[in-house]
Amino acid sequence: MRKKVIAGNWKMNKVPNEAIEFISELAPLVKDTENEVVLCVPYTDLFYSLLHAQDTNIKIGAQNMHYEEKGAYTGEVSGEMLKSIGVEYVIIGHSERRAYYGETDETVNKKLKKALSLGLKPIVCVGESLNQRESGEAKEVVTTQTRLALEGLKNDEVEKTIIAYEPIWAIGTGKTATKEDANETIKWIREEIEKIYGKDVAESVIIQYGGSVKSGNAKDLFEMSDIDGGLVGGASLDAQEFAKIVNYDK
Ligand code: PEP
Q1: Bridge partners, residue 158, by sequence
Q2: What is the pLDDT along the chain (250 residues), one digit of tens a residue?
Q3: CATH number of residue 25's parent domain
């Protein structure tokens, strides 16, 4: 049985005081869930969030990392740095990073290998644009992104990788993929993993859906056979709303 992982992606929102307040409000609301609760916060909130979430079931993640350990990379943060303060999760290859910061399938692969080597839990994002969906290329796009992200990984490393299927046209737009489309696309991703790494690995990989998830649609989406929770942007900024998403099964 795959666990549902429900991760908030705060993007460039909230200062430390707001992060602390948010965690105080969220913690009692989600303390009884069996789902994995993750908050991926800005770098400046990480340390405060980790301290504040210490005695809760809320896990803290970053939204990006560099694949090198250290060096002349102004403005970057390495996986080692994340690990050193106790960060557990890291988002890799979010479509906003691919679109605005030159993230490629190659850098995603390098970052993923590095994250796994450090014991960080990676959430790797894949997803097609609206044009690609409308022209029937979605399957090719998401399976290629998945294959290239995972290239060179051993079976046990693939099993530790969380994939977030996030159709770009559904991110921050209020448009959600239908539960059937989201489930079908996630099945394509799982089949691609099966082709390369075998059925056992494919069946154990956690694959989330992301794209305008909110409390009103979370249950429908997360109850589908292949959708193992979600990566949640806008709706993760409000503790009450995010708690409802986490507790979709209550
Ligand atoms: C995201 O940022 O990964 C995302 C899915 O955003 P939203 O939920 O706002 O569409």
Answers
A1: none
A2: 899 999 999 999 999 999 999 999 999 999 999 999 999 999 999 999 999 999 999 999 999 999 999 999 999 999 999 999 999 999 999 999 999 999 999 999 999 999 999 999 999 999 999 999 999 999 999 999 999 999 999 999 999 999 999 999 999 998 888 999 999 999 999 999 999 999 999 999 999 999 999 999 999 999 999 999 999 999 999 999 999 999 999 9
A3: 3.20.20.70
Question: How many C-beta neighbours within 10 Å does residue 144 have?
Answer: 14
Count of domains for the chain: 1
Q: What domain range includes position 214?
A: 5-246
pTM over 0.85: yes
Q: Determine how many CB atoms are found less than 10 A away from the CB of residue 71.
A: 8
**HSE-CB of 31 using CA atoms within 13 angstroms:** 10
Atom of ligand 1 nearest to the CA of 9: 2
Please check whether residue 188 is in contact with residue 181, taking contact to mean a CB–CB distance below 8 angstroms.
Answer: no
232, 241, 244, 246, best to mutate for ligand 1 pocket (most atoms within 8 Å of CB): 232
Annotated catalytic residue 166: yes
Is the distance from CB of 93 to CB of 106 less than 8 angstroms?
A: no
Ligand 1 mean position, distance from CA 92 (Å): 14
**Is 241 part of the annotated catalytic residue set?**
no
Ligand 1: lining residues by beta carbon, under 6 Å: 9, 166, 171-172, 210-213, 231-235
Neighbours of 97 (CB within 10 A): 18
